[in-house]
Amino acid sequence: MGHRDTLERVTSFVVGLAWRVILIALLVYGLTNGIRMAYSYGHGLMYDHAMAVDGAPEEEFVISEGQSSEEIAEALLKKKFIDNADAFKVQSLLYEAKYVPGTYSISRSMTTSEIIRHLTQEGAKYQELQDKNLMDLEATTAAEEIETDANGVEVIGGSDDENMIAQDAANAAFESQLAESAAAAAGQ
């Protein structure tokens, strides 16, 4: 029976060793694939590349009211301006991008960060124009009353005094041109 015990111990040792080797191999395989996938995912998030070569034509892209950065990313992905919606969302967070509804001209030769920067900068301009238009709208509403002078003639562009000053300046410029033309004709 001594021979049998030795055989069982050797067999048990070999089987245990085989399981350990298999487990270590699976662990190494899982780690290398995990690292490769993590690198690929991180590279995809941070690698800034364009979908087309330089000079690709610009196309309109519309951001609607209330559209989130996730929805914008999906729309850009669908129209093939970007190839990774997660990268757009992460970079939007990193750049603290605020998207304003409007119509934008973008190109497939723009990188993800260029698209984000462009949408953010143009959006800020849109917002500024919208704010000014709201103020101009209020000012225009007050100025929409038609003014007339004592003769019932519509006054355009300001008070009677401002209009007379402008007319006097225009008459002076016209008289100056006539004088210059007369002097040039007399000198010939």
How would you characterize this protein structure?
Among the domains are: 9-47; 58-141, Dna Ligase, domain 1 (2-Layer Sandwich). The longest helix is centred in the N-terminal third of the chain and has 45 residues, at 2-46. It has five helices and four strands. By secondary structure, the protein is mainly α. The protein starts with a helix and ends with a helix. The protein is rod-shaped, with a radius of gyration of 37 Å.
Map the helices and strands.
Layout: H1 2-46, E1 58-63, H2 69-78, H3 85-94, E2 102-107, H4 112-143, E3 147-148, E4 154-155, H5 160-186
Antiparallel strand pairs: 1-2, 3-4
Helix pairs in contact: 2-3
Radius of gyration: 37 Å
Q: What is the approximate shape? A: rod-shaped
State the helicity in percent bands. 55-70%
Question: Biggest sheet, open or closed, and with what strands and sense?
Answer: 2 strands, antiparallel
Average pLDDT, all residues: 81
- Biggest sheet, strands in spatial order? 1-2
Number of distinct helices? 5
Strand residues, percent: 5-15%
Question: Which architecture of the domain at 58-141 would the CATH scheme give at its second level?
Answer: 2-Layer Sandwich
Uncertain segments: 135-146
